[in-house]
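Project outcomes to date are best conveyed with an example. Our students and postdoctoral researchers have been running inverse folding experiments weekly, and each run begins with a structure described purely in C-alpha cells. The record below, which covers 198 residues, was selected by the lab manager from last quarter's runs and is presented without edits.
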C-alpha cells in the first residue's frame, strides 16, 4: 500500500482526491456512521478494488483525510510570510489571512465540523491546528504590557479564531472571505501591534 504522496502518480493522486471528495459529500448528506465503502466507491465511480489499493477501510480513509487537512490548515496559515519577517498589523489587508480563503475553498470539508455524526475526533482539530501554528511560528508584539505569547493566550486566540470560522460556516458563509478577514484583522489589531514569523 502506498502511503507517501511523493510515491504516487498524478493519476493515483487524482483517484485519491475523488475518493475523499465523495467521502466528504456523503458524510455531509447522511453522517459518518451511515457511510459505507460501497457508498464511497459508487459516488466516486470507482470499484472496491481501487479503494482497497489505497485504504485499508473507512477509518483509514478518515484518518488520512484528517491528517492531511490538519497539516494544510497549519501550512496555509504560514506560507504567505517569509521566515524572519516582521509584520505590523497595520499593514495587513484582505489577503493577509490565507486560512480564511482556504476554509472557503474547502467549504464541504469544514461543514463536517458542524455535524454531530462526523469523522471521529474532528471537532477539536481546527483550534489545535491553529494553536500549533501560532505556537511554532508566530511571536506577537503586544499593545500594552501583556504576555500575549504565553501558551494560554495563544490557546485562547486559537479557540476564538476557530469559533469565528465555524460560526461563519453555520451562516452558510454569508460574509465574503474578505469581510471575514477584515473581522479577524480588527480583532488582532486590538491587542497586537505586529508579529514575527519564525
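After processing, the design step wrote out the following sequence:
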Amino acid at each position: 500500500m502506498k502511503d507517501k504522496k511523493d510515491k504516487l502518480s498524478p493519476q493515483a493522486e487524482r483517484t485519491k482526491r475523488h475518493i475523499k471528495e465523495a467521502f466528504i459529500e456523503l458524510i455531509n448528506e447522511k453522517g459518518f456512521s451511515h457511510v459505507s465503502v460501497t457508498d464511497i466507491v459508487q459516488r466516486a465511480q470507482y470499484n472496491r478494488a481501487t479503494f482497497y489499493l489505497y485504504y485499508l477501510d473507512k477509518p483509514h480513509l478518515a484518518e488520512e483525510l484528517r491528517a492531511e487537512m490538519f497539516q494544510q490548515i497549519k501550512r496555509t496559515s504560514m506560507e504567505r510570510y517569509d521566515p524572519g519577517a516582521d509584520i505590523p498589523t497595520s499593514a495587513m489587508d484582505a489577503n493577509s489571512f490565507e486560512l480564511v480563503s482556504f476554509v472557503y475553498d474547502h467549504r464541504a470539508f469544514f461543514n463536517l465540523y458542524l455535524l454531530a455524526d462526523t469523522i471521529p475526533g474532528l471537532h477539536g482539530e481546527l483550534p489545535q491546528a491553529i494553536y500549533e501554528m501560532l505556537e511554532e511560528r508566530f511571536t506577537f508584539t503586544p499593545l500594552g504590557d501583556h504576555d500575549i505569547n504565553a501558551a494560554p493566550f495563544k490557546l485562547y486566540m486559537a479557540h476564538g479564531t476557530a469559533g469565528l470560522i465555524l460560526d461563519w460556516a453555520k451562516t452558510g458563509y454569508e460574509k465574503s472571505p474578505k469581510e471575514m478577514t477584515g473581522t479577524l484583522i480588527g480583532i488582532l489589531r486590538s491587542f497586537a501591534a505586529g508579529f514575527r514569523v519564525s
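Confidence is low (pLDDT under 50) at residues 1-5. The chain has nine helices and three strands. The training component of this project remains on track.
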